[in-house]
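Example (one chain per record):
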Amino acid sequence: MSGVVAMETESVRSGRSERSERSQRDRNHGSRSHRSSRHTGGSSRHHSRDRQYGRDHDTDKDSVSIPMHQGGSGDNPGDDNENHVEGERIEVQILPQDDNWGETTTAITGATSEAGFSMEDMSRINKNLEDSIGFNCARYIGSLLTAVFAIVSSVSPIAMVILPKLNLWVWNTDPCGPKCEGILISFAFKLLILLVGTWALFFRRPKATMPRIFIFRALILFLVFVLTFAFWLFYGVRIYEPLERDYHSIVSFAVSLVDALLFIHYLAIILLEIRQLQPQYVIKVVRSPDGESHSYTVGQLSIQRMAVWCLEQYYKDFAIYNPYLDSLPQYQTKLTGFKFYNVDGESAPVADGRSRAIFAAAARRRDTSHNDRFYEEQEYERRVRKRRARLLVAAEEAFTHIKRRQEQEGPAIPMDPQESAQAIFPSMARALQKYLRITRQQPRYTMDGILQHLAQCISHDMSPKSFLERYLSHGPVLWNDKEYHATQTWVLICEQLLSRDVEHGTLFQLRQGDVSLMITVRKLPHFNLTEEVIDPKNNKFVLRLNSETSV
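Predicted structure:
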């Protein structure tokens, strides 16, 4: 029997050339393949081996496997003819094609490599970096400037007193007598009080970064700068140039600077702290889109400072806004509006009457939409109360299974709070999950956070209601762990200059994403009280009796 040499060629070609080549081969060898398929001997087994070989070695979906077999000369002429016919047969295996070829997918980017950055990425990074640097500069530039002026003004009196005693140049001064020493003691205590007051008033972490300057704060810094500059100017002209010998006069000059700085500090306390304490306005804060509102009384503030004060009250008093509660579960309702088209020419009177009846029914359904909404809200509240009760019962039953280990008690295996929480949580997990689902609070809490809170309550011997307080009541916005950030960015919108003081009728808005706060300002009215004296002679009464009186 002649030997068989198998040759396998694999190539990647275009779809059009492969289809044309396959069609041409099918036309040329269709009849021969049909005749060779009748032989079921060695050719059939060889054919199965070729197909198995093609399946084992075909790893690419885009390749075409064409096994070709050629037969040699043999002793049996019948086998030779059979092998000759089989050698001319070509088997074409067509693999399934995929339209989404990963090898031909092209991504056009501005980067030079997969690990590189494009120009858009670099510009975005630069923008974020500039915004971060600009925000930090704007946040701390006021405090830094205040610190510089405070340090310079506080060190200046000390320098004026010490300079004549440094012996850097020939400056002979008279000795300091008892009166001079008393002034020095007063100078030291005044300066200490000034330093403590300055630290308490100005060296504080800024609560907010405002778009406009704070007028009164800038005024105080300007007065400090002018006063310090003026005293140094007179010190150089009247004391340093003539080399004043009277040390008592030099100390008195420095004490005068400290006294002036103390008076400026008192003025700063009045303008920055006391002025705004007396209530003068009533503001109303309305949150959109849920419409929750609160009213407050405030003193005289600028618009931007009042906006900061309103945000402090908002994070403290307003409940957490849940956008998922805006869409309560509703039942599927039929369409209430119809549109008719006349496609058959003139409409019949019956059709007109039918359309009028349908429109009337739709109008009646629209009139009852408020009734449907009322019953849907009632049903929702009923389901919330029901699941709340189930959650309370499940939590109470779960907490009854744990007890703090006492001394010399039974052989129970002690557990830490985390293990105890993991042990009792599955018994109330389903009830808690259903309650969070119906109240749309699932996105706000995670499993790890709930277990951590449960372990904390167990370790401090808290009751089941104390554990569920976080989920049953809507706490203030500040306690929303999901949206809590160290820095909250809001946009202030107002038609007036933000550094101006508020007045009656001032209206401004604060925005952050989908939440907006509308603040309306009204001035407290002037209360006119009059006195009315009741005459003791007229302060007498008469009892009227009739037949039905019970007295």
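Caption: The two ends are 139 Å apart (CA to CA).
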